[in-house]
Amino acid sequence: MERFLNGLNGGIPTALLAMFVMVCGAVSAGWLFSRFIARVSYRHPLPALAANFAIGLNLLGLSYLALGSIGLLKAVASWTLPVAAILAACSSALLNRSRIAFPDDVKTLLRGHRLFFVLATLFFLVALGSALCYPFGWDELTYHVEIPMRWSRIGSLKVFPDNPYSGFPSLVEILFANGIAMGGVLFPRLLNLSVCLFLLFSFWLLLRRYANRFFALVGTAVLAVSPLFLALARETYVESFIALDFTAALLAIRYIRSKGTRVGLDVPRIISVGILAGGAAAVKLSGVIIPVVVVGIWFLDSMTSRKALLQREGDACVPEADDALFDKRDSTCPALRVKSVLPVFIILTLVVGLFAAPFYLRPWIQTGNPFHPYFAEWFTHDPAALLVSRQHHLLAERFGTHGLTGFLAAPVTLAFRGDLYDAIVVGWQLPFCLALFLAVWARRRIIGDAGTARCLWMPAAFSAYLLFWYLTAQQSRFVLPLLILAILAGFRAMRWLPGRLRCSGLILLCAVAAISVDIPVAKHYYYGWKRHFLLRLTNEGYLKKALRDDGYIDAMKALALKTPVSARIAMVFERRGLYCPRPHIIATPCFQGALFTPLPLSPELLLKKSRLSKIDFLLFGGSPANPDFTKDDARGAAEFAAALAKLAAKGEIKLVWAEKGYNLFKLGE
Prior knowledge:
Blueprint: H1 2-7, H2 12-37, E1 41-42, H3 45-69, H4 75-95, H5 102-110, H6 114-131, H7 138-144, H8 146-154, H9 171-183, H10 187-207, H11 213-224, H12 227-234, H13 239-255, E2 256-257, H14 267-281, H15 289-304, H16 338-367, H17 383-397, H18 403-416, H19 429-446, H20 457-471, H21 480-496, H22 499-516, H23 519-535, H24 539-547, H25 550-562, E3 569-572, E4 584-586, H26 603-612, E5 617-621, H27 631-650, E6 653-659, E7 662-667
Parallel strand pairs: 3-4, 3-5
Antiparallel strand pairs: 1-2, 5-7, 6-7
Helix pairs in contact: 2-3, 2-4, 2-9, 2-10, 3-4, 3-9, 3-10, 3-13, 3-14, 4-9, 6-10, 6-11, 6-23, 8-9, 10-11, 10-12, 10-13, 11-21, 12-23, 13-14, 13-15, 14-15, 14-16, 15-16, 15-20, 18-19, 19-21, 19-22, 20-21, 26-27
């Protein structure tokens, strides 16, 4: 088993090199796109760096999708794209070397932002130990890393019938698949850490519009230490990628300097923002709200703002007293008028749709359902597909609260009730900043302050996103954009307050952030470094401790010891397949439609289906920590166990290993 686990890892130096190449390749691809295709420039190099990284990451994902769709998902191709982007960007820079004065450029780049880079370096050093550990999260083992690993092995982006999550739009998992081909199983966590750092970077730049350096540093730290952000940074959750696209889109709206028309039809800016918004929708279905929110913010801000005052043209990150995303004094960045809304909306929608469509086209071609496994009733009458769709809709409905009271209370319950959602709490930063903004904004609105109209986009965007989240999948990790909006709004409210009240608000926010810190999540980063320098555990021993679930690792070890290398395994009521040492399929009834769906099955039919699928061994059982185990699953497991017992009594199958809730059966000839 240890040999198999070691084979998944290309080595820490290789994984770090792959991460560095992917990050530099993304920045280079974004810069090439902005310079030669969109032909836009930014008012400051730092927003350009953040936005270009996000754009480049989306473009690399689209390119890898094209290669994977024709079966060219190989290590050579994975290295080639980012390296080619880096070489092209360097060549272009050298051809314009007369414009480059490296020491002066670095000073300009870092001016006013040293505090943030110290904070980012500390966060990177703290989180790196965890990022260099083997994945152990439930979703990582089920699909975030498991599916990319399977894709990298077969060299294509197949929708696996046994794992419906492989039919998601999957922009991030496609990046992971190519990264795994480059640097092994450690790459996804390293890329996620890089994205979290760039997300903090983008948030810092947005926050600098409302606060001085010290206040902005505190606001960025408040986001970084929130239980939600720490939880997303320690595992390969994809919500950090969605939030990065969201913040980068706001930066692109604000800081792009390009030639627009008098009616505001700024096509280069629209294309850049459209790719970022489309990239969020291409990550997963929960990201489709991001384009709507981004478009709404753009329109509301443009039509309600009257002016934008900047302290100086050379440093657009240090404003005087404006709330707008645009500089209305700059004739190249005019305000949108009502008559220009429709053409801008059409072009932006077209760009978003064209970018996201290929990621939905892949599952549509392979399964007939672009939203696989959801909404199967729109595209098929197959009973198995309908049961799988129903099961996944029910899983989403298990989270959260219902009714008007639940909706209104959600910002508060999210702060501390992880048991209502996905066991992740957001922190008290969310309700505190939201309450502060609403109180100050409402008071100034009542007394007739015209400046409040320019901030209308903040409560409107928050409400729209919260409503979408409430009506779809109520899981805590999906509200990261809400937390970002809330902290931005909170600091905008502080800027409206007089000096003493402003400092008091900051002190209260720091206290709220301190009491919100999730100690077990924070300790995880300590244990990550401890695993490398003090514990000296084997990979198998580390995974047992990290999973707190000996049964799963013992079951995988039993497969390694008691089955031949060529054996084909069916895993029933166990959905985690990342560390399975044999070719396997997930055969959980109603979770997937390829095998054993629908139930009930007679013993004879169960055996017949197994033989038709060329199953050699059947692993039955599952972890008590399964977050998606329902009453229907419990009934199905009881029926399945009864059928297996009858087959074992007849000698059709043989029990070869049983321990800690798992049973391994060998099927007879």
